Amino acid sequence: MSASEMRNHWELLPGAGAGALRFGMSPAEVADALRVGEPLKRVGGPYGQEDFADGVSVFYDAGTLACIALDAVTGPQVRLAGYALAGRDPQQAHRFLLDYAAEHGSCLLYTTDGSLALTDVGVLLRSQDVGGVRMSRPLFVKEDWLESEYYRDHLPLEGAPTAL
Asked: Which of 4, 52, 133, 158 could form an S-S bond across to 128 if both were Cys, CB 3.0 to 4.6 Å?
């Protein structure tokens, strides 16, 4: 069985969350939904960040879930129209998002680091360095955070991608 087949698969809930996680959940509800007692790590910063096992990080706004970030390799896999968003070549993933937006009339947004978002779906595609190779890392973000340059551009960058 390949690593891709072994990872969890989550459903995308456009504008609402992914997997068992829904925007607006409290930290206790997030831990309960992930079936854990506590996060592995809490990180300081401009928002509350908790890192959980299996490549899941979450971010809070005023104590409620506002963003779900999945590791490119160890995080759950989420598909958009059948396309796996995590662990892909960033250029191919960007091309997919552009094609998806054109077909479905989705709103596109480029961030200052060159990442691409579908704002109406709540997907922000960052890239992550994995052993010297850049791979796509999906973030699922509540709409007002995607509209806020402050939050959007301070979510995990993992080192800004080179020009794509």
From this structure: 158
DSSP characters over 20-78: TEETT--HHHHHHHTT-SS-SEEE-SSSEEEEETTTEEEEEETTEEEEEEE-TTTSPEE
- Tens digits of per-residue pLDDT, 116-148? 999 999 999 999 999 999 999 999 999 888 887
pLDDT number for residue 69? 94
Name the stretches of the chain with pLDDT < 70. 1-5, 44-46, 152-154, 156-164
Distance CA 84, CA 146 (A): 21
Q: For residue 42, which phi and psi values (nearest 5 degrees)?
A: -110, 135
CA 125 to chain centre: 7
From CA 12, how far away is CA 35, in angstroms rounded?
A: 19
User: 41 - beta bridge partners?
Assistant: 51
**At a CB cut-off of 8 Å and minimum separation 6, what does 110 contact?**
116, 117
Q: How many angstroms from the chain centroid is the CA of residue 104?
A: 20
